[in-house]
């Protein structure tokens, strides 16, 4: 269990908190006029006045010398100046990010020196107890380093996570996230990723829980031949709402990105996909694809999907698309004709649809199997 950073807070951080609070007071929370929030039920996102406990558990194997994997509160107590250049608020940050900077209670730091390869997953578990909880993550991989990071969001209440990931030249990160907060909770997550030359990043995100959740992923492919992949799924029932908001900027030439986000919606659930890929002048040789596929299990479920490309460079290969449909009657009939009961057949088809994001994910087999089990349980609850 982590403690609050407030007890060991340096003066530079207190000053930045005050500036972030002033910015939030001036900017406020997002409104329907903000394009990336226009389909979100904003009235339900107002944070509680009371702050909750930011309980964070870190699990890791024995780590090589030089690797740092610790809570923010611990690092600030041990080396208060170390994070001065890292805990900042970008100019483009929205109101929730400003509020996070002003109020964050704790978080985690993962730093891996150049050339160090970690083959066993590192695990972060968020388990807040209620109220408003603001947490931050920092992931810094040196040149040629590699790691596997797994995040689990399981606690209740109202959560606002901000994570910054920076991959140096040739670094490689596999990043999996399982969001399974209980009904009635709110989960907001904003992740920024900067990829250097030849860096390789894959994100696998399962959005399964909470009443309202949002996964915003902002990636900048800043170095030539960088590679980025996002594989996500939202599986929703009742009146759940989930948003995926990936925004990719192919800043350097000869970079590759792949996005596949799939949605399964039952009950009165609402899914949102607002994707954007930007390819400015000079980013020649870009190879990018963005796909959002959705399966509606009930008449009350609905989806708002808007994949978008902005291409100003030459000699590029870019594609985007979205589909919305229901279960294939012919496939259901085929399975039932082979003796599979209707409910089991339905479950098999829905699970196979959603699990595509895991089947081809570049993750260790035990981790992929664990995520598949979590996904299967949620699908079964909808069937």
Secondary-structure element pattern, one letter each: HEEHHEEEEEEEEEEEEEEEEHHHH
Radius of gyration: 21 Å
How many E strands? 18
Report the principal-axis shape.
globular
Based on secondary structure, the structural category is alpha/beta
Strand order of the largest sheet: 1-4-6-8-10-12-14-16-18
Tell me the major beta sheet.
Answer: 9 strands, mixed
Let me know the average pLDDT: 93
In short:
The protein has helices at residues 11-27, 72-78, 95-103, 329-337, 342-354, 356-359, 365-382; strands at residues 56-59, 68-71, 106-112, 122-126, 129-141, 146-153, 156-167, 172-179, 186-195, 200-207, 212-221, 227-236, 241-250, 256-265, 270-279, 287-296, 302-311, 317-325.
Describe this structure in words.
By secondary structure, the protein is an alpha/beta fold. It has one domain (5-327). The chain contains 7 helices and 18 strands. 45% of the residues are buried.
Attribute tags:
alpha/beta; nine-stranded mixed sheet; 383 residues; single chain
Sequence-ordered SSE layout with sheet pairings:
Elements lengths: L10 H17 L28 E4 L8 E4 H7 L16 H9 L2 E7 L9 E5 L2 E13 L4 E8 L2 E12 L4 E8 L6 E10 L4 E8 L4 E10 L5 E10 L4 E10 L5 E10 L4 E10 L7 E10 L5 E10 L5 E9 L3 H9 L4 H13 L1 H4 L5 H18 L1
């Amino acid at each position: 269990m982590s403690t609050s950073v407030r007890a060991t807070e340096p003066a530079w951080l207190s000053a930045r908190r005050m500036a972030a609070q002033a910015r939030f007071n001036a900017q406020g929370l997002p409104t329907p006029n903000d394009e990336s929030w226009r389909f979100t039920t904003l009235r339900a996102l107002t944070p509680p006045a009371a702050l909750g406990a930011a309980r964070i558990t870190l699990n890791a194997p024995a780590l090589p010398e030089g690797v740092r994997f610790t809570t923010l509160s611990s690092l600030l107590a041990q080396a208060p100046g170390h994070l001065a250049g890292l805990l900042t608020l970008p100019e483009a940050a929205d109101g929730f990010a400003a509020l996070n900077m002003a109020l964050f209670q704790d978080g985690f730091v993962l730093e891996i020196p150049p050339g160090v390869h970690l083959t066993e997953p590192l695990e972060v578990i968020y388990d807040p107890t209620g109220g408003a909880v603001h947490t931050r993550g920092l992931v810094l991989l040196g040149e040629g380093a590699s790691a596997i990071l797994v995040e689990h969001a399981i606690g209740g209440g109202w959560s606002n996570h901000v994570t910054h990931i920076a991959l140096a030249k040739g670094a490689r990160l596999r990043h999996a996230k399982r969001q399974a907060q209980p009904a009635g909770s709110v989960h907001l997550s904003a992740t920024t990723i900067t990829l250097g030359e030849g860096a390789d990043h894959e994100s696998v995100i399962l959005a399964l829980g909470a009443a309202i959740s949002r996964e915003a992923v902002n990636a900048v492919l800043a170095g030539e031949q960088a590679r980025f992949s996002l594989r996500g799924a939202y599986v929703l029932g009742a009146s759940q709402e989930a948003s995926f908001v990936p925004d990719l900027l192919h800043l350097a030439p000869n970079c590759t990105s792949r996005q596949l986000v799939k949605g399964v919606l039952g009950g009165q659930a609402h899914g949102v996909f607002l994707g954007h890929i930007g390819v400015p002048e000079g980013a020649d040789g870009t190879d990018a694809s963005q796909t959002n596929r959705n399966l509606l299990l009930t008449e009350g479920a609905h989806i708002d999907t808007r994949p978008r490309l902005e291409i100003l460079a030459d000699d590029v290969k870019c594609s985007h698309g979205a589909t919305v449909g229901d279960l294939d009657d012919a496939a259901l009939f085929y399975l039932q004709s082979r003796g599979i009961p209707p409910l089991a057949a339905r479950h098999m088809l829905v699970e196979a649809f959603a699990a595509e994001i895991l089947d081809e994910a570049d993750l260790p087999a035990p981790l992929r199997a664990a995520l598949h089990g979590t996904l299967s349980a949620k699908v079964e609850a909808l069937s």
